[in-house]
Fold this protein.
Amino acid sequence: MISDNLQRIRAELPSGVKLVAVSKFHPIPALIEAYLEGQRVFGENRPQEFASKAVQLSQDIEWHFIGHLQTNKLKLVLPYAYMVESVDSVHLLEAIDTWGALHSKVIRVLLELHLGAEETKHGLSEDEIREILGSAGKYGNVRFCGLMGMATNTDDESVIRADFQRISSLKASLSAEFGVESSPVLSDFRELSIGMSHDWKIAVEYGATIVRIGTGIFGSRQY
Ligand SMILES: *Cc1c(COP(=O)(O)O)cnc(C)c1O
């Protein structure tokens, strides 16, 4: 079942788009099934669960943290994180940088744009993202790898498209504004993490380089 789902998604996903298997709330055997099917990139959104799964599973997994992260939980997440996709405040960014300096580690991050409706409370405004990137050089232990966003949770495809269009255009204008190709501190700013189980095919049309799929792989979650 999990392996069928993975095969089906991979068959449709363009090459070059990274699939993050969002395994939150699913037990270890489910992750192992995906692992045996070749999946090596997993996403979790709760620090304790993230840390617990990371220590139980194989070292060659790339763990993405995708949830709201409080600074007092960094020690659970940063030792294992390949990337923190959900940086939603300057305060968090500064804390990640400080942790990185203390532990001689550079942490890959995506800046989360606040997209869509009120149900998503977290995320940065376009102006905040611009300001952060303008002073990217002061975060010596952070690597800025791109943007993340969650479209409005709706069946109205035109709303989803408008959200994806906005984040996609923002990424393009930031890349031009900051000359990321030749920038010493922003040369990795290329990822666009958009798209979940119900909207990932649309996200791909808008230039997603990372999609985060949970239900579509593991089935529904038991909260
Ligand atoms: C849970 C979650 C997903 C996956 O959602 P599905 O609808 O199950 O695919 C993707 N991104 C984030 C940030 C999430 O919290």
